[in-house]
Specification:
Keywords: Hydrolase, Metal-binding, Protease, Signal, Zinc
CATH superfamily of the largest domain: Zn peptidases
Organism: Agrilutibacter niabensis
InterPro entries: ArgE/DapE_CS, Bact_exopeptidase_dim_dom, Pept_M20A, Peptidase_M20, Peptidase_M20_dimer
Largest sheet: 6 strands, mixed
CATH architecture of the largest domain: 3-Layer(aba) Sandwich
CATH topology of the largest domain: Aminopeptidase
Family: Belongs to the peptidase M20A family.
Radius of gyration: 24 Å
Protein name: Acetylornithine deacetylase/succinyl-diaminopimelate desuccinylase-like protein
Structural class: alpha/beta
Shape: globular
Helix content: 25-40%
Bound molecules: zinc ion
Length: about 475
């Protein structure tokens, strides 16, 4: 998952900074080419190849074999993949618990016939890198790795262990992150995680900076089934009760239902920043809701905005439908899949109970997964300051805004298992032109890759130095 931010303009101001000569940017480009040209799509079995290539880079740079681990695992029986775990031990006695750096090596499928260029050949054109994974999330893998190689080459002495986890199935099952937060926790236990697959910056097409987000929370993904059963019969003799009508009545009630709006520390900080640059009705609604969280009408106005949808409450929506077995028979069964994106801290079981009340007694609501509630990470001032300072070194005065993602990432199992995670990506793109992650002709501004390397160097120098 990766979002480039903010659909609306926040601030007029500084232009994009001039590029600086840096041999590590050339190194990043070398790693990027190898990473993009290894098609790490689920089912193709190529993630272990990329993991071994990256492991070789750390080894060549002086990491001990005992601190580099390629961890094979099966995301599904058909998808053999791997994670890469690297440890940079503290020089001397550690002064604090480790920091965990996270990114994912796998990418979403990309078919050559759907693209205007080959998705698995790195192409530089008109100031952009094109290729699947250029923004989600091989840029993160490469920027983190290059920054560590650079720091090592320059004699940086970390005061605490720096741990790295690159997973191999974030886009599909997310099992690597779950293993990392549970079975492999002894290797990866950290004070907090910094995720390259979250946060980041956006610019308007006229180059105005819109802002960088600091991802501290994400909603919980959970699926439910709405099912109706009926004795059925011959369709020439309709019964008063009908499985399809009962299901559609329940779905219509769901369509009109509004879950209770609620602010959490992340969205409170987010709307606090957002309202500063929203003079109109939307901004008024933000200000009214911040002042009075019980003002449901204000929250509804915000929720109705295409750029803010999903941020004020849990949302559930029907996504799939089946029912009946013959055109001339009364349906014995009708079933809909309902997908929910639940506010952090709210139990998916509690949402099931709420859905059951909406659906009524003719429809059975069941869970289709065993997701547990995601948790938001506290807004740590030290991490927020390191991120903000580093962003401002690239783009002075650009807003840095806490963010709750409506989708899910590798951060979730760590947050659930007691390790707060912060999405602190330092790359950027043009909104909405460059929001192509998972889609066609994914790309990244060439300059954003080098910027991201420098960003991770600054962040780690601050937080681990
Ligand atoms: Zn991603």
């Amino acid at each position: 998952m990766r979002t480039v931010i903010l659909a609306t303009a926040l601030l007029a101001g500084s232009a994009v900074a001039a590029p600086a000569g840096n041999p590590w940017h050339a190194k990043a480009r070398e790693l990027f080419k190898q990473a993009i040209e290894t098609p790490t799509v689920a089912g193709r079995g190529k993630v272990p190849e990329l993991a071994h290539y990256l492991a070789g880079q750390y080894k060549a740079a002086g990491w001990a074999d005992s601190d580099i681990h390629v961890m094979p695992y099966d995301a599904t029986p058909e998808n053999h993949t791997a994670a890469l775990v690297v440890r940079w031990p503290a020089a001397g006695k550690a002064t604090a618990k480790p920091i965990l750096l996270m990114a994912h090596m796998d990418v979403v499928e990309a078919k050559a016939e759907d693209w205007s260029v080959d998705p698995f050949t790195l192409l530089e054109k008109d100031g952009y890198f094109y290729g699947r994974g250029t923004s989600d999330d091989k840029m993160g893998v490469v920027a983190v790795t290059t920054a560590l190689l650079e720091l090592k080459a320059k004699g940086f002495k970390p005061k605490r262990d720096i741990l790295v986890l690159f997973t191999g199935d974030e886009e599909t099952t997310g099992k690597g992150a779950l293993l990392g937060a549970t079975e492999w926790k002894a290797m990866l236990d950290a004070e907090y995680g910094l995720n390259a697959d979250g946060g980041g910056g956006g610019f308007a097409p006229d180059k105005r900076p819109l802002g960088f987000t600091f991802q501290t929370a994400e909603k919980t993904y959970a699926d439910y089934a709405f099912t109706t059963h009926n004795a059925g019969g011959h369709s020439s003799k309709p019964r008063p009760d009908n499985a399809i009508y009962q299901l559609s009545d329940a779905l219509n009630r769901l369509a009109g239902y509004r879950f209770e709006p609620a602010l959490n520390p992340t969205t409170r900080a987010y709307f606090g920043e957002r309202q500063k640059s929203e003079p109109g009705a939307l901004g008024d609604a933000m200000r009214a809701w911040l002042k009075d969280p019980a003002n449901g009408a204000a929250a509804d106005t915000i929720e109705a905005d295409v750029g803010e949808v999903g941020l004020t409450r849990t949302r559930c929506v029907a996504t799939m439908l089946t029912g009946g077995h013959a055109p001339n028979a009364l349906p014995q069964m009708a079933k809909a899949t309902v997908n929910c994106r639940i506010l952090p801290g709210v139990s998916p079981d509690a949402i099931r109970d709420e859905l059951q009340k909406i659906a009524g007694d003719k429809v059975e609501v069941t869970r289709l997964d065993d997701a547990v509630a995601s948790l938001d990470s506290p807004l740590r001032p030290d991490v927020l300051k390191a991120y903000t300072d580093s962003v401002h070194a690239m783009f002075p005065k650009v807003p840095v805004i806490p963010e709750m993602s409506t989708g899910a990432s590798d951060a979730r199992p760590f947050r659930v298992n007691g390790i707060p995670v912060y999405g602190v990506d330092g790359s950027w793109g043009i909104v909405p032109d460059d929001m192509r992650a998972h889609g066609r002709d994914e790309r990244l501004p060439v300059k954003a890759l080098g910027d991201d390397v420098d960003h991770w160097v600054r962040m780690l120098s601050k937080l681990a130095g």
